[in-house]
Amino acid sequence: MSNQVGESHSNAELSAAIGAAAAQAVLGGHRGTYPAVIPGWTKVHTFFTVLWPVLAIWAVVAGNPSYAVIPMLLLVGMGGLYLRIGAVARRNRTRRIDLYDAGLTVASDGQVRVARFDSTSVLQNIVRHYRNGVYRGTSYQYTVTDLHGRPLKLDGGTYVNPRAWGEAIQQAVTSAQLPLATRALTAGHRLQFGDVWMTAQEVGAGRKSVPWQQIDEVSVDKGAIVLAVAGKLMPLTAKMVKDIPNHIVFLALADQLRAAHPGR
Q1: CA end-to-end span of the chain
Q2: Contact assessment for residue 219 and residue 229, using Cβ atoms and an 8 Å cutoff
Q3: pLDDT in tens, 122-173
Q4: I need a labelling partner for 147 at 20 to 30 A (CA). Which of 7, 43, 107, 130 fits?
Q5: Angle between helices 247-260 and 162-186 (to 10 degrees)
Q6: Given 2.40.30, 3.30.1660, 2.30.29, 1.10.620, which CATH number is that of 2-38+93-175?
Q7: 26 near 172, Cβ under 8 Å?
Q8: Which residues share a beta bridge with 153?
Q9: What's the rounded Cα separation, in Å, for the pair 212 and 215?
């Protein structure tokens, strides 16, 4: 589901379009809004008001006409950056994530798209960045499927407070889908999580499988899902967690099934 939203819409009109899309998808009560980050002008403004005049005076005092090219080139480059920041700021004013009891809406690129927690799949990629051993920050990226099964990317660099909305989405998806998945396993179904699968008796990837009673623990180690079998860690699949949809639901189910099949 997607509703068209013109870039010229006011905040009230945008909110109305989002509310209409949420109501149509029966998303329930509103939990919170996470707008897009509006890029700052500080560095560009500092250049124009302080640094560029200094460079221009230096070029004149130096008495070499060729030196004048330097501040002129910088002026052109910074002017282009100034325009680009303005364009991003205008576009981001109509971008936001809204969370509801039963799903979420994403306003972006002139559309409002919708995902429900009981049917969406979530890919999560959280990376802690270091430089020379010094922590430099964490990047967040999520991909959810909308009501039509199309991927919808949510970048932590675009929307404010990604840790909060990312955790909220994962918790809501797990709460909505875990009971459904548990009933499906009890009924004898096999559940697929990308190239990883599970039944009430075993877990596997491709043709490789391990009975639950042989597994001591299922966990994430260095970005991969690993099984602890007879005191040894073995990777379940070569795929990383970031490539496994709804891996939080998978891990919750694994804990339940492992507890239901204690080792001998």
Answers
A1: 50
A2: no
A3: 999 999 999 999 999 999 999 999 999 999 999 998 899 999 999 999 999 9
A4: 7
A5: 40
A6: 2.30.29
A7: no
A8: 143
A9: 5
